[in-house]
Specification:
There is one protein chain. The protein is α+β, with helices and mostly antiparallel strands. The protein folds into 2 domains: about 5-215 and about 385-410; about 220-365, Aminopeptidase, CATH 3.40.630. It has helices at about 5-15, 45-55, 60-70, 100-105, 115-130, 160-180, 230-235, 235-250, 260-265, 270-280, 295-300, 340-345, 345-360, 375-380, 395-410; strands at about 25, 35-40, 75-85, 90-100, 135-140, 150-155, 185-195, 210-220, 255-260, 305-310, 315-325, 330-335, 365-370, 380-390. Helix 8 (about 235-250) crosses helix 13 (about 345-360). It starts with 6 loop residues before the first helix and ends in a 13-residue tail after the last helix.
């Protein structure tokens, strides 16, 4: 891992976005089986090639990625790569250089008072260790999202295990290219891959270590749910009573309103504050969204994003955002007033409203992402196990890094619920 010696580089990435900086385009020599790469930090420089190769998915799209490129969260530098074999372009990689400081990313205060003496000792040790754990990581994927958004092969006949092997060799090459051009990085992280793939790391000569992270919570929309009432009717009695109680607690004095771009711009500080209030509950946060994230997203994506606010006495007490992808709906970031949540059950109402939005939009499924696993399962979402793959170019550090992260971010137990008949 990179410690104090890389402090200057951490600061450089922290304060840097691609706008206003000279672009770089790096070309690799050919490597295994006549593969080659072009690596770049401004999407515009290879726009036509990128658009030819990407899938029909918002999170690989030019507007979404360019928005993050121009206004990245602190400590993130977006990068891109196009992979060729025998001079034919076959795949894209969506990458991020991320400065990770575990002492900033981990929340040691939440629930500390509830811990017993042994748990408190463990927390104190993790806190001490986090203070020295600072490193620059190359991420294949997107830290802002939950899901497989790190690479895409235009040729879908290539088996996944072969894709993985090709991407690993590509990432090794990219690390070398970046290091030679002033962007040294330590660990390499392949982020968020579903566990149910017919694939095993044991069958590959890979230096990655595989470990599990919290699952993606997904609600599959049933064919018979033509309206929200059908969803409620499919629930067990106690869960249906719970839903109706939540609606009543929210109250008729709370007004739900879809926000225009003007509404978002006028209230973006409030939206950010509510996002931060909600994000502070998480045990682990790798980043903080920019204050103007939602207005930028609305400008770039138009009707593909929806922001809905909950207003009480003229003040926003909560909101959620939706991204409409080709076949599914993404429950994106949200925020709510924690002081009013218990009495009004704002968060639970948001989950029901998101489900109503999905049914009305006739999507196949709703991706709720990770966190708050139990309450999401109580409305019908089911966990899809996810894995990440981590390695370091240094052999001994390669053995240390996954153990350190496993120690720093222990598993959390939760009880899955089953609300349907």
């Amino acid at each position: 891992m990179e410690y104090a010696s890389k402090k200057k580089k951490l600061i450089k990435i922290e304060n840097q976005s691609s706008r206003g900086n000279a672009p770089f385009i790096l070309h690799s020599k050919k490597f295994q089986n006549d593969f080659s790469l072009v690596v770049f930090d401004q999407l515009q420089s290879n726009k036509e090639d990128w658009l030819k190769l990407i899938p029909d998915n918002i999170f690989f799209s030019f507007p979404f990625l360019e928005m993050i490129e121009h206004t990245p969260p602190k400590g993130i530098k977006p990068l891109y790569a196009i992979l060729s074999q025998n001079d034919k372009q076959i795949a894209v990689l969506s990458l991020q250089l991320k400065d990770i400081d575990l002492s900033e990313s981990m929340n040691f205060n939440e629930g500390f008072k509830k811990e017993n003496a042994i748990q408190r000792f463990g927390t104190a040790v993790r806190k001490k260790a986090a203070g020295i754990a600072k490193f620059t990581t190359l991420i294949c994927g997107n830290v802002l999202l939950t899901g497989e958004y790190g690479f895409h092969f235009a040729d879908n006949t290539i088996l996944y295990k072969d894709q993985f092997n090709i991407i690993e060799k590509s990432l090794d090459t990219i690390v070398q290219l970046l290091s030679k051009n002033g962007y040294p990085c330590g660990p390499v992280l392949m982020k968020d891959y579903y566990k149910d793939k017919e694939f095993s790391l044991n069958n590959l000569e890979s230096k990655f270590t595989e470990f599990a992270v919290q699952p993606n919570m997904i609600l599959n929309i049933r064919d018979e749910w033509n309206e929200f009432g059908d969803y409620l009717s499919s629930m067990k009695s106690k869960y249906r009573v719970r839903a109706k109680r939540a609606f009543k607690k929210l109250g008729e004095d709370v007004v739900k309103q879809e926000m225009t771009i003007e509404d978002i711009e006028l209230n973006e500080q409030k939206l950010f504050d509510l996002y931060m209030e909600t994000a502070s509950e998480a045990d682990f946060n790798l980043f903080t969204l920019p204050v103007n994230y939602f207005s930028l997203l609305k400008k770039q994506l138009g009707d593909k994003i929806k922001v809905v606010s909950y207003i009480l006495d003229g003040k926003i007490i909560g909101y959620y955002t939706i991204l409409f992808n080709t076949e599914y709906m993404e429950a994106h970031y949200l925020g709510y007033d924690k002081s009013k949540n218990a009495a009004r059950q704002i968060y639970l109402n948001m989950l029901y409203d998101l489900i109503k939005e999905g049914i009305d939009a006739s999507v196949d499924k709703i991706q709720f992402a990770r966190t708050a696993l139990e309450i999401k399962s109580s409305v019908g979402a089911v966990p899809y196990d996810m894995l990440v793959y981590l390695k370091h170019k240094s052999t001994w550090k390669n053995k240390l890094v996954p153990r350190l992260l496993g120690f720093m971010v222990p598993d959390k137990e939760w009880v899955p619920r089953s609300p349907f008949k």
